[in-house]
Design brief:
about 20% strand; alpha/beta; globular
């Protein structure tokens, strides 16, 4: 039973600034685990908030294990807008005797929630907890795509133990492997070595520099829409907006850009997991970072509430098909546009590909990709996907 993995929350979260939360506050609508023996039931639940007080995977940000309830305090006080989904808060996963025990506990929780169509939202803790989140999908033998909002790639070396700077490399190397694609949003070149950039290219993973993303933040929407799991390192947000991290930098995303990415993540019909990591209250100023994370969660939930259920596989009647031929390219490119949301997809030619990747044959894209194809150019995101299927 999952209750054994969790510690109950302090009922004081139902109070804010010395007063009971008003009836229109989120905290009054969320069923939270406050008392042993009264674990929330899963009937009709859409999202489950999970705290993980674990920072042994990042010795440079010790203290990140202590921030989950501070985020909850800010989050619970926000107002309900259009959140018809039932939300539960399962409390904080008990810290394992070893870091590997904590990963295993996370994996077990994910393994139980995903088949119930419940979206786990993990509040860390250090970002290596993404490894445990991925392990839950692996237990389900589910091929997934991961999108990381991070200033670095976290590849490490093959001989390194799993930690916040190596977890991605460990996921890539594991066999059997259930990672189809990885995308980084917002890496900063002065933190990333040339070898790492070249390795990402060789693996045909998608990487987007901070400046490139900030030039047109809307282009992050198809990137995030292709994800099953989004993991966020708060050091990707500039220090002026999110000082609560020992590795905060003068450069990074603005807070409103982070919220916009979270909205895109929430509205994606495919996405089934979110993790926000590396909040350290020791470095926060007036709870500013906790407030930002709370608002990021609010926008994510707002996005989930606005899902269109317009994935072409779900309903064949609500889209328009465009077929584009490109010179010297064997296959024509089929573009699909939703008439409900104006979102675009590319259809990958899957003949002869391995069956385990069939779920990846619809690739989210943007109108810019369609324009590029019409100009006789193969879109980069299509090229990378085809190389992985080769």
């Amino acid at each position: 039973m999952l209750e054994a993995y969790f510690q109950p929350l302090d009922a004081g979260l139902l109070w804010h600034n010395g007063q009971a939360l008003p009836s229109d506050a989120l905290g009054t609508t969320i069923q939270s685990y406050y008392q042993e023996g009264k674990f929330p039931d899963f009937e009709g639940v859409r999202l489950a908030i999970i705290g993980v007080g674990e920072d042994r995977g990042n010795q440079l940000n010790i203290g990140a294990a202590d921030g989950m309830d501070l985020i909850r305090e800010k989050f619970y006080s926000l107002k309900v807008h259009q959140h018809p989904q039932r939300i539960i808060d399962l409390g904080n996963i008990r810290r394992g005797a070893t870091l590997e025990d904590t990963y295993a506990a996370i994996a077990t929780v994910i393994y139980e929630l995903i088949p119930l169509k419940i979206i786990p939202v993990i509040l860390g803790g250090s970002q290596d907890l993404t490894y445990g989140h991925y392990a839950g999908y692996k237990m389900l033998e589910q091929i997934i795509n991961i999108v990381s909002v991070d200033s670095q790639f976290d590849l490490g070396q093959p001989e390194d133990p799993v930690n916040a700077e190596t977890f991605l490399g460990k996921i890539i190397l594991e066999q059997p492997n259930y990672l189809f694609n990885f995308s980084n949003i917002g890496y900063q070149t002065y933190y990333v070595g040339t070898e790492s950039v070249e390795l990402m290219k060789k693996l045909f993973f998608d990487t987007f520099r901070l400046g490139q993303v900030r030039d047109d933040i809307q282009e992050t929407e198809p990137i995030v829409r292709n994800a099953d799991l989004v993991t966020v390192d708060l050091s990707a947000i500039r220090q002026s907006d999110a000082p609560g991290n020992s590795q905060a930098s003068p450069n990074g995303f603005f807070g409103e850009e982070a919220c916009q990415i979270m909205m895109y993540a929430g509205v994606s019909d495919k996405l089934s997991g979110l993790g926000i990591y590396e909040y350290n209250p020791k470095f926060d100023v007036n709870g500013q970072t906790a407030s930002l994370v709370a608002q990021m969660l609010w926008y994510f939930i707002e996005g989930v509430s606005s899902r269109k259920q317009d994935l072409p596989l779900l309903n064949a009647n609500n889209y328009i098909t465009y077929i584009v031929a490109i010179a010297n390219v064997e296959h024509e490119i089929t573009f699909i546009k939703s008439t409900k949301s104006d979102r675009w997809w590319m259809k990958l030619p899957m003949e002869g590909s391995r069956n385990r990747y069939l779920s990846q044959h619809l690739l989210p894209c943007s109108y810019k990709d369609y324009q590029q194809a019409c100009n006789n150019e193969v879109p980069d995101r299509l090229w990378n996907a085809l190389q992985k299927l080769a």
